[in-house]
Amino acid sequence: MTLDQIETPAALIDRVRMKRNIARMQSRMDTLGVAFRPHVKTAKCVEVAQAQRDAGARGITVSTLKEAEQFFAAGFSDILYAVGIVASKLPRALALRRAGCDLKLIVDNLESAQAVAEFGRTHGESFEVWIEIDTDGHRSGVQPDEPRLLDIGRMLHGDGNGGSHHGARLGGVMTHAGSSYDLNTPDALAALAEQERAGCVRAAGRLRNEGLPCDVVSVGSTPTALAAQHLKGVTEVRAGVYVFFDLVMRNVGVCTTGDLALSVLTTVIGHQVDKGWAILDAGWMAMSRDRGTAKQTHDYGYGQPCTLDGAPLDGYMLTGANQEHGILANVDHPDRDISVHLPVGTRLLILPNHACATGAQFPAYQALSDEGEVAVWNRFYGW
Amino acid sequence: MTLDQIETPAALIDRVRMKRNIARMQSRMDTLGVAFRPHVKTAKCVEVAQAQRDAGARGITVSTLKEAEQFFAAGFSDILYAVGIVASKLPRALALRRAGCDLKLIVDNLESAQAVAEFGRTHGESFEVWIEIDTDGHRSGVQPDEPRLLDIGRMLHGDGNGGSHHGARLGGVMTHAGSSYDLNTPDALAALAEQERAGCVRAAGRLRNEGLPCDVVSVGSTPTALAAQHLKGVTEVRAGVYVFFDLVMRNVGVCTTGDLALSVLTTVIGHQVDKGWAILDAGWMAMSRDRGTAKQTHDYGYGQPCTLDGAPLDGYMLTGANQEHGILANVDHPDRDISVHLPVGTRLLILPNHACATGAQFPAYQALSDEGEVAVWNRFYGW
């Protein structure tokens, strides 16, 4: 199959760019001397994760137990489920561990730590649990200096004998400086990367000073991973969206539009000539409702249109989106000849604001090789 | 299965409310003396469309050819594909018609009308095509008084002999006053409903005055359908989101929060007590990125939390959302006791901004009966 034969809208992966993005991140991690555990929530696609592993990644990070199940079934065993576990989800986690999956859980509160230990004890399983650390205040996690960090650590470690007698064991600490998405200068990103590193290492130190084990110190987000000057005390880094990058990351300053490996293939289906609009068959159902660039330095609307060879149509953007209609226009210079420039049937690529959100709208990717051949790579969704 | 046994996050349908919404709309259409053709893009679920048909709906409207294929396979034959057709999609439309589906297409330009007629002629098929009319300037369509309306009509009608000799036949006109979502008073809605009706009827009159056939005059959006005072000259109405309603519709003023039939079941997985936050396992992947209430009179953030019996938690909302994390907070009165009020493990319902976008994030609905029993209703996605 070639690009011409794909029905629109479609989610297109540029495999050359994807491989370059994977190599760039892995090379940086190798230089910094840390293991790399990609977050596979971005693509939810086995072929993408295999490419990351082939490049040197060790283990994966997931955002749902469904991802854990799907990737375990596809041959991935070392899996971190990086959303705080609660009691009601423990039976599924148990089933994965009993099937041989080296699944790690995270908690950021005493109630959940206790629930894991008790459930594990009841079922003769010792869950490996990491403590989530809050290093930038953007979401969940225990702050590095909070007293309860040690309470949670002791709850997980139990009497220290570990094994199935206790039900849980403390494997390490992890943090995610997600506020990095709000920054846009190298200095600010490097400073946040250092804050992320230092906070997580400090938390690990406090646990160890209490005699608690803390083998893993795991940090990361795409921007901080690429901005970190050193990662002393860190054992592994996690990042997800770097594999495709997107317009939000372009505005953060960690890639260019030429690095974006995911786009939406679309067809012009009509015009409103008086307004200078072309109407596309890619609306928000294809692009997602993500407007992540709205508050950034460059607002791309619902996405940046490009010709099929990847060249951005400068000045044009998706100014609006209904469920299955996108509106393409030149905002500053309304194009009254748009039906001549982009006649009905014209095919375009739209670069998305947020690759994780756009990818999630599609059952499969069309993965384009450097020779112009297209392979179908399935993805999954749900929980 | 009961509510307690459902894993979170989950998309919950309150069947009692859904049936009430369906009955309300159908009763209104019956009173206005028009046929009703629900838009099934909202739920993409056979059981929901069956309930609409059982209540009196005639035919369905779809937003993708995949919907047409799925609903045709489930026993629906009278299907309007309400997005402008382009040449590349005609083979799929042809396959549906050859399989016996009474599929109708729409166009708003001469190129597409010509493409349909030529493709139909080549393949011995006479496609029924309606012309899309633009009655409020919000998206696609031909304005009622544009000269090209008649050119398109003549292109579709051909020499008037119809049948497979020509490849297309003109079935009618249709319009969608989607700008109704921007309104919020009964008077403004009634005025737009009249504008939608009058514009579409005027377009039909112009075609008929030229000797062209125009059996169908199809109008609608949920707000205008519910606000129309009369529908003289209209043969059918289309509406979609009314089946669930949502917070956007509540702000438009056509329903109350007590009518909302779709919600997301979620679990509290942690807290940031200093900030008054509860962290939920429903982030934007569950709620969608839709922020449709942001510019309305009441901004609900990413959604309105309710207790399991459907009572809204006044003052609280989803103030933020990451992929699998939602942040619940009381914006005006930060709740420092939130971990006491909503401890880890608490289950809540979140009413969504936009039912079409939220439903699309889930592979299935959990449909709750008035007796508290839950059935799984599959939905589909993609194109």
From TrEMBL, chains A, B:
GO BP, sorted A to Z: D-serine catabolic process
PANTHER family referenced in this protein's UniProt entry, alphabetically: D-SERINE DEHYDRATASE, ZGC:162816-RELATED
D-serine dehydratase-like domain boundaries: 261-369
Source domain of life: Bacteria
Family of this protein: Belongs to the DSD1 family.
Keyword Ubl conjugation assigned: no
A Pfam family reported for this protein in Swiss-Prot or TrEMBL: D-ser_dehydrat
UniProt organism field: Caballeronia mineralivorans PML1(12)
InterPro entries: Ala_racemase_N, D-amino_acid_metab_enzyme, D-ser_dehydrat-like_dom, D-ser_dehydrat-like_sf, PLP-binding_barrel
Single GO MF annotation: D-serine ammonia-lyase activity
Protein name, entry field: Alanine racemase
Keywords: Lyase, Metal-binding, Pyridoxal phosphate, Zinc
Essential cofactor(s): pyridoxal 5'-phosphate; Zn(2+)
Signal peptide: none
